[in-house]
User: Fold this.
Amino acid sequence: MKAFKIAIWVLLGLTIATCQKEPERVDQDFIQISTSEDSLNLNLNSTAEITVNLKSYSPTTKVKFEITGGTIDGKTEVALTPSDTVLKKIFTPDSNVGKAYITVSIMGSDISDVVEIVKVNPAPPSVISATYPATSLSINQAEQMNFQLYLNPEFAERSISFTFNGGSIHDANGPVAANIEINAADGIWNGIIKTDSTKSEGYYPLVITVGNNLYTHQTNFWLYKEDIANVLSLSVTTTGTVFADGISTFNVEAQVSNHNASQITFTTTKGTFSNNQTTISLPISGGIISTDVIVSQEVTAHSVTAQLNNPAYSQTVTFTPSASLPETMSLVPEAWSIDSSATSQSQAIALHAYFDKVTGNVSSGLNVNAEAFQMLGGVKTSFGTFTGIPLSTDTNESVTTSYYGSTGMYPDSTLYIVFAAQGVSGTLADTLSLYVNGQ
Assistant:
């Protein structure tokens, strides 16, 4: 016995009409009912699975099903309290051809919506049959498959129609019309199924209807996506060492197969592409597409994602550039003296350290050590506080901080301020000599 699936959503803050009925809006909640087909035809010997998805779970929420033309749990009215955000029930049609209606509501409110199901007689094999080489099809390249339909030449009704939301039905001349006539000579009609690459994975029923819902013949097709390993792969290549200097590049290459996409979109979390943006879309030619990423000044992972659509695939690679170390450093104070009483932040003086190199920029985020001290009796004695500790380089290849002293600084003497950082050839350091003013 074949089963269809019907999805019912309980959402917040939206209004969607289904089955030509406008849901009543109460506060922020309402129910939307949708089916796998625009108009669901259900054979009398089949069942339909109904899924209710709650936006959030509450032990006090009660959901009521009201059914005409069939039953749920053997009843035409069922009220229950869901134990989770997902509730599934099976609808069983009665024995009468015609329409069935399932109304779902939240008890204690005016929130409700309804779905219509058309109940039809299943066609006996003596009337109509169809032969398919397979019932699983790929959506990656809009796969197509030939099939053959047989409508008994002795059967008076010769008109048939197709319903297939997983793609389209064609004959040798292209897509078929809404209704086609089957010849009465041998009753054979040859067709082609073409999948729709915009669809999601899942089961899609192909329903062949004879006349005006006189009989139906149904086959469920599983539409699947190819495994990503057979569709999209990414790799990174570099020439020499790539430094986080804002100008160096690394290359990302995508290889695409088993997909009909005409373009691919790359996105990077750090750095930019040749268009100075963090996203770029490129045409696919020959299945191989590459792009350069201009690194940022951050010594951190640059994650590049390639995205294909219809159907959707994405793959990510990560590359971390090496630190671009400075070759020179200079330390510049706001003032060349400080009062011995300058022991609060409001009395601080600004300090600027500038880093440079011949090619490219110095990386941001490089650690810079700072210390301030006096030599008292030949002993190195530390004083004061630097703001913004720990210090590190910014994208302007500099460090800015403020310094204020502490109690005990010896007046009329020298305060040494030393900045040090890792450079290309070892440790870089610069020292300031500030005069400590007396009281």
About this structure: The chain has four domains: 3-120, 128-224, 228-319, 328-437. The two ends are 99 Å apart (CA to CA). Confidence is low (pLDDT under 50) at residues 1-31, 33-39.
